[in-house]
Design a protein that fits this description.
Layout (H helix, E strand, L loop, with lengths): L2 H5 L1 H7 L1 H8 L2 E5 L3 H13 L2 E6 L23 H9 L8 E5 L12 E5 L3 H14 L2 E8 L2 E7 L3 E4 L2 E2 L6 E2 L3 E4 L20 H4 L4 H20 L8 E5 L4 E5 L4 H4 L1
Parallel strand pairs: 1-2, 1-4, 2-3, 4-5
Antiparallel strand pairs: 5-6, 6-11, 7-10, 8-9, 11-12
Keywords: Nucleus, Ubl conjugation pathway
Pfam families: ThiF
Main location: nucleus
């Protein structure tokens, strides 16, 4: 067994060698390096995914509460560059690049998954459409002190398998598929991304535990998508910090629900 197989031995036993090969061949683009994407970055890098971090902001003291990869030494540096430096220390096989700039559609090329944290509606739509055009899986997330959400678009249809049974008798199901839609196909859903004015002042900052929960859930789903094992989120996940509950809603255009 080579060194890389030793590092990923637990995952190989969990997902299988074929799935780990897919994970190792995947490139993920993380745009907007705030609390959730910091957690996503950590989990994907540890799993063996190659990651590109993109952000045009400068690290500040306010980022230290959720960015454990950059640390105090990163304050004053570009947020993506500072985070990438810490992420490369996660393991000998960590593959992390940084782009000190904002979101651009051209960045999608060469990647298999895009995770966009934050951004206004125009940026979300542009990123989603760019991913659709290139057959790239798209995740959009945002989080604050009240909770967070994840929107997922894996293309018009996405095929996956689930595991039946446990232990030595476990086997994979026949292929299953589920439908997805673009963000701009869901006009009413845009309202879910808007925080009520009355609570903006209280929830405009991120909390580390919410970022950890959201990032863990999102990264786990990305791994499912890569391996095509297990049912991925379809297509909105909403986390409510007041109840500590994460609920998945299948929100498709009305014509698809009939």
């Amino acid at each position: 067994m080579n060194d890389e197989n030793l590092v990923y031995d637990r995952q190989i036993r969990l997902w299988g060698a074929e799935a780990q090969t897919k994970i190792g061949a995947t490139r993920a683009l993380l745009c907007g390096i705030r609390g959730v994407n910091v957690e996503v970055c950590k989990n994907l890098v540890l799993a063996g995914v190659a990651v590109t971090l993109v952000d045009d902001a400068i690290m500040s003291n306010a980022d230290l509460g959720t960015n454990f990869l950059a640390g105090a030494d990163g304050v004053g540096e570009n947020r993506a560059v500072a985070t990438a430096s810490g992420a490369r220390q996660l393991g000998a096989f960590a593959r992390v690049e940084a782009v000190a700039g904002g979101w651009e559609p051209r960045l999608v090329a060469g990647h298999d998954v895009v995770v966009l944290e934050g951004g206004d509606e125009a940026v979300v739509l542009e990123a989603n459409n760019a991913c659709r055009a290139q057959g790239v899986s798209f995740y959009h997330t945002r989080a604050d002190a009240a909770g967070g959400l994840v929107f997922v678009d894996l293309g018009p249809t996405f095929e996956y398998r689930t595991e039946i049974g446990t232990g030595a008798t476990a086997r994979l199901s026949e292929p299953k598929s589920q439908r997805y839609c673009r963000f701009d196909d869901l006009p009413p859903v845009a309202e879910l991304t808007r925080t009520p004015t009355s609570v903006i002042a209280a929830s405009s900052h991120q909390l580390s535990y919410i970022s950890a929960i959201m990032g863990g859930l999102l990264a786990q789903d990305v791994i499912k998508t890569i391996a095509r094992k297990g049912q991925p989120i379809c297509n909105f996940l909403v986390f409510d910090a007041s109840t500590n509950a994460a609920v998945v809603h299948a929100l498709l255009p009305a014509a698809e629900n009939q």
